Amino acid sequence: MSAVRIGVVAVQGNVSEHVTAIERAATATGHEAEVIEIRDSGVVPDCDAIALPGGESTTISQLLAREGIDEELVAHAEADKPILATCAGLIVASRDANDDRVETLDILDIAVDRNAFGRQVDSFEAGLDVQGLDDPFHAVFIRAPAVADIGPDVDVLATWDDRPVAVREGPVLATAFHPELTDDHRIHRLALFDRLAAEA
Hints:
It is a single chain. The chain is α/β, with parallel strands linked by helices. It is built from 5 helices and 12 strands. The protein has helices at residues 15-29, 57-67, 69-78, 88-93, 186-199, and strands at residues 3-9, 32-38, 49-52, 83-86, 94-96, 108-113, 124-128, 137-141, 146-150, 155-160, 163-169, 172-175.
């Protein structure tokens, strides 16, 4: 397979864990991947795919806007290039965070229920059936959001407690959980490399 460049937005969150997961997924799919950390504008346009980690959604959205990365991520999605957004990244990618402090990217036609599954002490792990994966995915939920409303073009890939926790619209795949906190790279493969292969 051809070489690809994948960026991990590194303003906050589990950046190194995403880098490791992407490298594992690249090896598993036979890709040669250059994985770079993005802290400034001007990098996203040169990337074939992007990971947007979790953290604190208000802070992430403000940092993206301050650095000018927000508009580049919107252009990336509009160009039909893959994006994986996890936990707070899902909130930032949404059209409606149900919180005026969050400047959403509006690249995913969903409204979000922030901290839907409780506070940090309510964190949990669960086996999820995810559309596109043959076996259950061991998901780690930490102060996790849930999808409260979805647009007509959004596909629900997984649910927990009857709430959508993994969704996809076009090139954007978003999860309420943290796939980077396990040794299982399949969500990164599904969101990034399988999409790149399909587009090719």
